[in-house]
Amino acid sequence: MIYTFPRTKEFFEPAELVLATGVSKERFGEAILKELVDNALDEAEKANKAPVIEIAAEPFLSIRDNGPGADIQDLLNKILDFSVRASSKLAWKRPTRGYLGNALKTVFGMAHVLAPEKPLVLESGGQRATVTVRPLSTGEIRVNPVLETVPIKPGFSVTVPVPVSLNCSTFAAAVLFNPHATFDLAGERVQRVGDVEKYPADAPVSPHWFDAESLFNLAVMVAGQEDLTVREFISRYFVGLSGAKAGQAAKSCPVKRIRDLVFLEEGQGRKAALDACTGLLRAMKILSRPVSPAKLGGVGRENMAKRARQLFGVEAEGRYVRKEGYTWDDRPYVLEVYYAPAERKHIVTGLNFTGTYTPLFTSSSLGKSDNWGLHGYLKELLKSRYESGFFLAVHVIMPGVEYTSRDKKPYLPVDVVQAAGEAVARAVNSVRRAVQAGSCGGPEETTLKEAVFAVLPEAVEKASGGGRYPYSARSLYYQVRALIQQYTSRELDYNYFTPGLLTEYQEMYGPLEGLYYDPRGIAVEPHTGQEIPLGTREVADYTAPDYLYNKVLYVEKKGILPVLKAAGLDKKYDLCICAGEGYASRAAKDFLAMAEKQDIVVLCLHDLDINGLEIARTLREETRTSRNAVTVIDLGLRYKDVVEMGLEKDPEGVPLKKGWHKPVLDTLPHDELEFLTGDGKRGNRVELNALTPEQLIGLIERKLAEHGLAQKVVPPEEVVLDEARKRFDAVLRTMAERRILEILEISAVVEKIARSVKMPDFSGLPGDIARALEDNPPVSWRDLVEEEARDFARAVLEGVDLSKFLKIDHRQ
Description:
six-stranded mixed β-sheet
């Protein structure tokens, strides 16, 4: 088949290609090399393989990967449509390579400029396509691929009819920032040196990476491939927005299906479509958390040092600095810097595990002077020592990178630029101090907090067995304690690790998947009496039964639970009682959030003191330990209750320690505020324990009535009728079965059968069981005995004529 296209300048004319790639015509060979290496790495990673890239640079450039390969004809149909330049990678905004996504198209164009009418060769899966591009006098482009069958080789290969030099910055960056890859360079092998963690190329994206226009562009692209509702679009493609959250966010969009956004643009204009996306995006961001920077992965200290030694002969110990953070618009970023003394000057920069045609930060001032770019900043830092050799690698990982025009010059937010300046200065100054002290060896001593935060992702991986098992805070502590030794010689105390550092880490980066806390409190269902320990694992496995209770009461004192149960409040008001120990634990808040999602009203009963009011407030808001915010009706003891009931305050009061002023105090009436704060050094309180049982029960019942919450569960009519039919059927069957057994005197019949059969010979069973248990199967010896007894009983009964015992006449 011969493909003929209208003349598409941006892919075949030098001036347009310079704009599209950001490199001059003299660097087209380097650009071809970079794009093909990026594609080769991507293909291998799609197959979950450590990349092995074979490269021959002369007389022609040839690259082969170890990926899954491709259907040549299908590939040609896609890449030879030069009328389309939109990139799916650009639409998704993931932190991936090849952000503009036109690799093979620009390769065809640049190869045509450098070697007019010479063919490119694509090969995969036993198919080879020799592709020639020719411009016609009409101004059109004719592409003529010749297909042939060849012996099958692994992966996918491309041969471009131009020689290239491997001695270029972008190729060095590709090797440096992909330590998990092996590069076979015409016999010279650059072996992989370690593994890397990366954000998966097909993982859900975060709404925090988008603005209204980019969300609209993504919706249009997806609508061209799938007919999805807005809710399906959100839950399928956006992280942290599945289930009820997707439905809640979808309600903020004026259309039901994503294709309707396209129709909205066509009917009412682009502004109407963007307004719809603005409202939708706002709701999605409110309902989700930004992705943790830790999930972006990185190259790592050891890999950087090993690659620097492989590529540039850097033998001296260097300093590695990793900084994580968020940009002003909640995009996560990771910045990695490695600096070491060297014989010559080497600066290598990379973005999302690949090189950039223009070094990063060339248009940025990283320091206090007017020196621009990394070279200028190093002159400022090193002064006269700048003329000595050094090696500097700077790697940025972040989603949603923007590029100036189409020239592949990345625009990095000021947050990242400032972090880069700090990280480079820290690494350079650390090496300089070590050299002056004559001890440029070993890593720089870091703070305990920095060390713990740096190793927590790896510690979680170890403690959870690669995500297969739950793990406790103490198990995690032991893994962290061992790993931080590479960063610091200081000892980590468990009480400093948790709740302090562990809570702060989760506050910054979100809850750690699989981490569980031991139960601290209990929830009790009404009518069934089932008790649910308030531990993270137990709560995660629990769902409230339908129409069993319509309210859940969080009580800050577990000791009050027996009084409430003895009074029958749980059964009288269809009330689930959740008894905690002071402030609600993460598991308790998870339980309450679960209840709220099932339209169960959440109540709180607490002491009259500052902490009691804070307990109610922290249930309503996100906290350091829990992202759940719950709508809470406060049934707690208040100052007016104390006055009306004539209760005495605690004579000891409550010491007001440093930082005692809590946000909840700003909302209180003046008399209640005065009572709680006392003289400013010791506040007042009245505990629930000060109430008699009658007073406590009366307080709860009165407040339930005041809030209109005294009603019991009354299901819809269809639910009642369905339950009645099921219960009738079950009771009827049970009663009928019991009556039949009585008439037939079944127990006597069974006794006769048991006496009539011979006991089997089990003499060989002990030896069989001993052999069966040698490999430690997940069963008890009693399980094996039970199984053997069943087999014998089944065989014996098959030989018994039961009709003789039941006196059944088969002729009837």
